[in-house]
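Record 1 of the preview.
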Amino acid sequence: MNSFHIKDDFYINDRKIKIISGAIHYFRVVPEYWKDRLEKLKLMGCNCVETYIPWNIHEPEKGKFNFKGINNFSEFVKIAQSLGLYVILRPSPYICAEWDFGGLPYWLLKDDSMIIRSTYNKFLEAVDDYYSELFKYIVPLQITNGGPVIMMQLENEYGSFGNDKKYLKAIKNLMIKHGSTVPLFTSDGGWQEALDAGVLLNENILPTANFGSKVIEQTSNLKKFMDDNSIDGPLMCMEFWIGWFNAWGKEIKTRDSKEVSKEFKDILDLGHVNIYMFHGGTNFGFYNGANFYDSIVPQITSYDYDALLTEWGIPTKKYYDFKNVISNFKSIPNFELSTKIDFIHYGDINLTNKVSLFNTLESLCNPIYNDIPLNMEKLNQGYGYILYTSNLGKKRYISRSKLVDCDDRASIYLNHEPIATQDASNIGENIPLVLNKDDKNEIAILVENLGRINYGDKLRSPLQKKGLKGGFMVDLHFHNGWNHYCLDLKNIDKVDFSLPYEENTPAFYEYTFNIDNKGDTFLHLKDFGKGCAFINGFNLGRFFDIGPTNYLYIPSPLLQKGENKIVIFETEGKYYDVITLSDKPLFK
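->
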């Protein structure tokens, strides 16, 4: 039986080991490609893989757990072990990771008194319940039980959020209660205040630091903190940021390979490292997070991160530069990759069917009536869209109306005609209304949950609740009487394409094609406005014509020989009769 200890350094079976790890998030990679990505990590010279565990995918609804398919992290860990890789797990309730709500489940927000990342009793009870299931999978994977997991993280960058040591101690106790036996660590920014706030002293927990530059300075800060607090242990950068994440409408962020490789060597000269990210992958579905600056800034579907492997798994120049650096510290293995991956240009595919959302609503969900509009969480909905509809009454002119307290993107329609789209830049601006029907005029408001904030003080903000939170004002009064259509789009197969299509309304577009050979491909979407797309029922993620990406990546395991079906939900009335599946991605 192997053992792992932290003394003056890291030891496996009393033998010093230099940890050279790379981050791969199993939940951002289809399971069929886990082995390929892990093999490429091994071939670069790494001896360890690190991954977060996001609470919100494993307990999507309170008390309902999912550890299958892309959520089967224990299988990911076992594949790593079969390749001779060690594993660092980060099962914190909060992960950040540019992931919706930092990995916290949306249903926590149903409690109006909820205080996340705190000793608030109901939060800790929820963590306890979650860990009671999660650790059934973790316990046998620990090195103390013959598995490859050598360390686990306590919370995540807590020093950039709070300094409640009682809370950190409570999370530690819960981890131990449910079976944690390997060493624990914290990871925080590499400066005094962050380390002071986020490190739990005198609990035999190793502090590590996260940074992407000024390696010698940052490592010196960590060493000084450890020396000042009489902590004996190795120096480790738990997140060496070699790239960055991206937001809609912004240029893609990259780092020079030569510059970052030099910093990488500095880390290995001084201690141990986990490369963030080795392979970023994809924010499938609606799980992208958002940052908050002056307003909510959602991240894009691609989590390429300018990593060592591209979003679609191809080694970059940076990969080979890092491999060269590692070769100065250890021997590099050489073996053939076991997964054959082809990239195929399938060409143009013609539109098969189309239908307006307004006409297929009843096939997707039953309306929920309430006098006042309800937010998404109150409707037991985590992600996607809500369509609010109401009758404004008889024919007349209304000089002023407005949305109140909506922090996402809202498209407003009057009798199915688009009259306004508002987002962070103009939510609450006046909307004049011309009611032109004699007795019934329907207002419809389609609100898209753009992604919850994943970092910073706004984690505890009312901004995290989605949908209409205040309401809709007509003149100087709130308008009452609303139907709610909850569109999480988990039942995309229920779209009824036999119903009518209306121009310039949110709509579904179906494209059917047949293939003989399966390969990775890219759905080009330059002719579409905003929305999301599905391949054979699987949600590939969001697209937006402002870029920087105008594609969605389709891994070949999501295709099937014979007939395949792409369904695109588009909200701006902008589409094209032909889509292209290319062997190359498309950028703005």
